Amino acid sequence: MRATRPRTRPQSREHVVTIDTDSAPRILFSGENFLLEDLPVGTRVIYPKRPLTGVANPRAAIRYALNHPENMEPLHALLRPGMKVTVAIDDISMPLPIMRTPDVRQLVLEIVCEMLADHGVDDVHLVIALALHRRMTDAEIKRMVGDKIWNEYWPERLYNHDACDPDGMVVIGKTRHGELVECNRRAAESDLVIYVNLNFVPMNGGHKSAAVGLCGYESLKSHHTPKAIVDSNSYMNPPDSAIAHSMTRQGKVLEESVKIFHIETVLNNRTFDGPLDFLMKNEDDFTESDRLKFSAMKWALDKLPFAARRELFMRTPAAYELIACYAGACEPVHDKTVAKSFEQYAVEIEGQADILITGIPYVSPYNVNSKALNPLLVQVMALGYYYHMYRNKPVVRDGGVMIVTHPCSDKFDPVHHPSYIEFFNRLLPETRDAYVLEQKYQDEFAYNPSYVEMYRRGNAYHGAHPFYMWYWGQRGREKLSRVICVGADNATVPELMGWETADSLAEAIAMARTTMGRSAQITMLHHPPIVISDVL
Amino acid sequence: MRQSHHKYKNSAAFYDVDGTLIRINIVHAFAFYARRQPSLIESAKRTVLTAASIPVFWAADKVSRKWFNEIFYRGYEGASEDRLVMLADELFEDVIKPNIYPRTRDLIEESRRAGCRQVIISGALDFTLRPLAKYLEVDELIANRLEFDGGYATGKLKKPFIAGATKAEVMRDYARRHDLDLGSSWAYSDSFSDFPMLAVVGHPTAVNPDLRLRSIARSYDWPVLDLDQAA
Questions:
Q1: In angstroms, rounded to a whole number, what is the distance separating the alpha carbons of residues B72 and A25?
Q2: A461 alpha carbon, distance to own chain's centre
Q3: pTM metric for this prediction
Q4: Across residues B211-217, what is the average pLDDT?
Q5: Which end of chain A is more exposed for a tag (fewer CB within 10 A), N or C?
Q6: A301 Cβ partners below 8 Å, 6+ apart?
Q7: Which is it for strands A396-405 and A390-391: parallel, antiparallel or unpaired?
Q8: Which of residues 110-169 of B touch A (CB under 8 A)?
Q9: Per-residue pLDDT, B5
Q10: How many other CB atoms are there within 10 angstroms of residue B14's CB atom?
Q11: Which residues contact B19 (CB under 8 A, 6 or more apart)?
């Protein structure tokens, strides 16, 4: 690492930095470690915006939203003694990493449950709306909702949604496109559903909350398809997302029979602070202290075994702050939420890149507290989430090359991801064609009684979940000419996913240039924290 | 709502019993019978003998399941068939039923809903498992059978001995007779000694596995279920 850096860089475009001859090397996540790499002169590095200031009094902001909702009566006006209410709550897949306590969902729940009690509403169930995600453990639920809610509601009135419970699900109807709409029976039979959302990225929330969070496999499979992904010109931007359109249709059908009061919360992007605050900075602006902290951390991570490194990161919650809370009818609430979310994340850039470089961190929505970011999740982070972190046009042009940094170890969590293991080792060697996989094998995995049992009573993702992970990378796979992985500790895993490998970033860039030319425009997405590129 | 999607109508789920669906094993059943002899002195004698034999049973099982069976079932020699069958219900109510793993019925229910034929295949004696099979509503019970002569046990098993590789052979034969596809069938066991029965199906699943089977399951990427953990 170079010793000192000039501090004379112009600040007007602080989120888009062009590498020149005296630029500092850039830090890239590579799983549970970092790479420090010099980038070619002219490379464009996209940084996240600084965190928006959190609201001064989160509880007051939540109360204000409940009392001044969008296109609906205030929550207290919807309540009457003796009514049946179900409160649905977003699960552990957001935010990433988990936030410091009190979780914003705890703040909302404490206010909502108090209001329900004050209005004589006793028949209240709290359901973790996890769709086909894994069941949260008792400790995870307790941490998320706080002691007060836990002590009062768990276990009879606070529990995980079960999408495979034949008695616990009901069919609501079909959309005009023929998409089945199922719902958790308790929610469907309630006089009022209150949905407590935590909006981490723009694709969260809105009709996705109840129509997906409380649904079953049969309704989910209408939009979790390779085609829907390919038809989504960024699933991070709801108006351009075929998946979001399908969920909206389902949500509208659902809301014709179930009254839902939506509460959406938006967080800022303060992913790292304290000893890790240097990860929020442009490397050119590092102080001596920042450089020392990074060197010490890198030294320690290089020495520690994998499990210890993973624990270190997983036990470091983020200091996210509430920046907005909206409540009321689904669509007006979500419009405001998405606007606020883009206010935090969107960074304007001019023109697409030929080569996109991005580090893959240790965490994804589907491996919180898991033993590893398994290869399918590495793939979904790269070709799914990070490829789709744009609005208007993709950051990397069609036919471009994506370079990712991750060890791609052959590591799976057998408790959380049992069906992923079979998918990866049995199906991918046969075909990488998502359409074939969907037709030939998805139902087999979905109905596999061992996987159903592990989903319903263990802590496993649903048997069909690895298919969705593969589909979510489909647009990236179809649009990119090559994906090159730097720092893989084996050749088999990248090869199974159709990726090439390089020993260093310099080698990967040289490989990419053989396809895209010497003058190829190179862009690096510097995250986490999350940044969504608004490509002009 | 759907009750059964019958995705796997030509499939079966084969379950080992001891350690897989229930916490206890055949020695517990044997001890149960030993304690229930016509006289107190005989009961005490049989119980002491059973306790003293446990290290021998353990050692024999480590060497060979076939050898274990030969030594173990000799203990039933001279027992009246009527009495063994009559006490089986009591054995189930007092010993087996309280030791069924909390998630056993759920697993069988999921498998039934998937359309699989439910088959218990166990090295235990058939009459000791009949009440369990009825309770779990399985379609078929394949278990070891004691040989009786004039209504009294000879201490030998009828062939084939249901253990180890024979389980796999019996399953193949069963699949042929019932037109089942083993490639889309399941097998559930807790023990490495059942590796053959797990290896013969397309969906082997280790259940509450011993260390050796857990290691094998990890190597072969088989799912590992823990039925002892309440949901």
A1: 71
A2: 15
A3: 0.92
A4: 94
A5: C
A6: A32, A33, A34, A309, A312
A7: unpaired
A8: 110-111, 113-114, 116
A9: 59
A10: 32
A11: B25, B190, B191, B208, B210
For domain B12-225, give the CATH number.
Answer: 3.40.50.1000
Token pair 């102080």: residue: A287
Q: Which of A137, A440, A453 is the best substitution to test chain B (most B C-beta atoms within 10 A)?
A: A453
The reply to whether residue A414 touches residue B7, judged by beta carbons under 8 angstroms, is: no
Residue partners of A466: CB distance under 8 A and separation at least 6: A376, A417, A419, A420, A423, A424, A445
Burial class (CB in 10 A: 0-12, 13-18, 19+), A495: middle
**Minimal Cβ distance to A414: which of B3, B184, B218:** B218
User: In this predicted model, what pLDDT tens digit does every residue of A260-309 receive, in sequence order?
Assistant: 999 999 999 999 998 899 999 999 999 999 999 999 999 999 999 999 99
Per-residue pLDDT tens digits for A162-192: 999 999 999 999 999 999 999 999 999 999 9
Identity of the residue in A218, A425, A453 whose CB atom sits nearest the CB atom of B107: A453
The complex's ipTM works out to 0.85
- Chain A contact set for B226 (CB, 8 A): 458
Q: How many CB atoms lie within 10 A of CB B90?
A: 12
Give A329-360 as a DSSP string.
SHHHHHHHHHHHHHHHHEEEE-S-EEEEEEEB
pLDDT band at A9 (very low <50, low <70, confident <90, very high): very low
Yes or no: domain A58-267 corresponds to CATH 3.40.50.11440? yes
Residue A453 pLDDT greater than 80, yes or no: yes
The minimum CA-CA distance between B122 and chain A, rounded to whole Å, is: 20
Cis omega (within 30 of 0) on the bond before A239?
Answer: no
A318: which DSSP letter?
B
Q: How far apart are CA A386 and CA A527, in angstroms?
A: 9
CA distance A114 to chain B (A): 29
Q: What percent of chain A is modeled with pLDDT above 70?
A: 98
Q: Which residue has the higher pLDDT, B76 or A103?
A: A103
State the sign of the Cα–Cα–Cα–Cα dihedral A110, A111, A115, A121.
Answer: negative
* A460's tokens: 């496993």
Q: Note the pLDDT tens digit of each residue in A373-417.
A: 999 999 999 999 999 999 999 999 999 999 999 999 999 999 999
The residue ranges of DSSP E strands in A269-421, in sequence order, are: 322-328, 346-349, 353-359, 390-391, 396-405
A532-535 and A346-349 strand pairing = parallel
Strands A500-502, A396-405: pairing kind: unpaired
Q: Which tokens in the block code for residue A407?
A: 């060890």
E strands, A226-352, are 260-267, 322-328, 346-349
Q: Would you kindly state where each structural domain of chain B is located, as residue ranges?
A: 12-225
Q: Is residue A5 predicted with pLDDT exceeding 60? A: no
Could you give the count of Cα atoms lying within 13 Å of A263 in the half-sphere of its Cβ?
27
Go through B47-67 and write b for each residue having 16 or more CB atoms within 10 A of its CB, e for each that does not: eeebeebeeebeebbeeebee
**Token representation of residue A524:** 């690096």
Query: In whole angstroms, what separates CA A11 from the centre of its chain?
Result: 30
Q: How many CB atoms lie within 10 A of CB B142?
A: 20
Most distant CA pair in chain B: distance in Å?
Answer: 59
Q: Which amino acid is at B89?
A: D
Instruction: Report domain A16-42+274-317+350-535's class.
Output: alpha beta
